[in-house]
Amino acid sequence: MMASIDSEHELSGKTHPACCNLELLLKDCQIEHVRRSGPGGQHRNKVETGVVIKHLPTSITGEASERRQQGRNRSIALFRLRVNLALGYRLPEIAESPSILWQRRITNGTLKVNSEHDEFPALLAEALDTITYYRFDVKSSSEFLNCSSSQLIKFLKKEPRAFALINQRRLEAGLHLLK
Questions:
Q1: Same structural domain, 82 and 104
Q2: CA–CA separation, 7 and 57 (whole Å)
Q3: For 142-156, how does the pLDDT look when each residue is reduced to its tens digit (9 = 90+)?
Q4: How far is CA 55 from CA 31, 111, 133, 154, in A?
Q5: How far apart are CA 108 and CA 19, in angstroms?
Q6: What pLDDT does 41 receive?
Q7: Cα dihedral across residues 92, 17, 141, 94: positive or negative
Q8: Are residues 42 and 84 in the same domain?
C-alpha cells in the first residue's frame, strides 16, 4: 500500500515523514478520540480513550485503544503511525550516505535497535527507502547502509509486515524470496 504525496503537500527536502520530529509530524495530522469496545470495564465504555491519528498528506493512520489512559493510547497511536508511514510511504530518492541516526546504530557492521524504540520507525523507513532505491537488492542496500545483508534481513524481520513487503516486491521483480 504505497502512498504518494501530491505537490501541495510535498515534503521539504529528503525527510521521510516517519523521521520527522513529533511536533512537525503532528502538524500534518488529524487526531480523533474514539470509544472502543473490549476489556477495561465501565471506564473504557464511557470515555473516549481510543486515539486515531491520520497523516493527512498520505492518509496513513495509526491507532490505539488498548489502554485506559488517553495519553498512553496517543503515544502508542503515534508510534504506530510512524511505523505505518515507514511501511507505506517511499521517498523517490535516498541521501548520498546513510543518516547520522543509522550510522549511530551500526557497530562493526551490526545494527542495534529494539523494535519498540522511538528511533525504530525512522530506521525502518530509511532501510525500506534504500532497499526500494536499489530495486530490492539486499546486498547492494546493505553495502550502502554499512551493514551485512544478514543484519539488514534480521532488522526487517523485527517488523513482519516490512519483511513480507520486501519479499512481495522481490517476487514481483523476479528475485528469490528472503529467508
A1: no
A2: 10
A3: 999 999 999 999 999
A4: 9, 29, 24, 28
A5: 24
A6: 56
A7: positive
A8: yes
From the list 83, 98, 82, 109, the residue with the least C-alpha distance to 14 is 98
Picking from 88, 120, 143, the residue at the C-terminal end of a domain is 88
Q: Domain count for the chain, please give it.
A: 2
Look up the domain containing 114 and give its range.
Answer: 100-172
Same domain, 127 and 157: yes
For 128, residues 6+ apart whose C-beta sits below 8 A from its C-beta are 86, 87, 90, 162, 165, 166
Q: How many angstroms separate the CA atoms of 47 and 98, rounded? A: 44
Q: For the segment 20-68, what is each residue's pLDDT rounded down to a tens digit?
A: 988 999 999 999 988 866 555 555 456 678 899 999 999 999 999 888 8
Cell of 46: 464511557
Cα(179)–Cα(170) distance, rounded to whole angstroms? 12
**Residue 90, phi-psi category: left (phi > 0), alpha (psi -120 to 50), beta (remainder):** beta
CATH label of the domain that carries residue 76: 3.30.160.20
Q: Of 59, 88, 117, which residue constitutes the final position of a domain?
A: 88
User: Which residues, including other chains, have CB under 8 Å from residue 159's CB and lie 6 or more apart?
Assistant: 83, 86, 87, 115, 120, 124
Residue 161 grid cell: 509486515
Contacts of residue 15, Cβ cutoff 8 Å, sequence gap at least 6: none
The pTM assigned to this predicted structure is 0.86
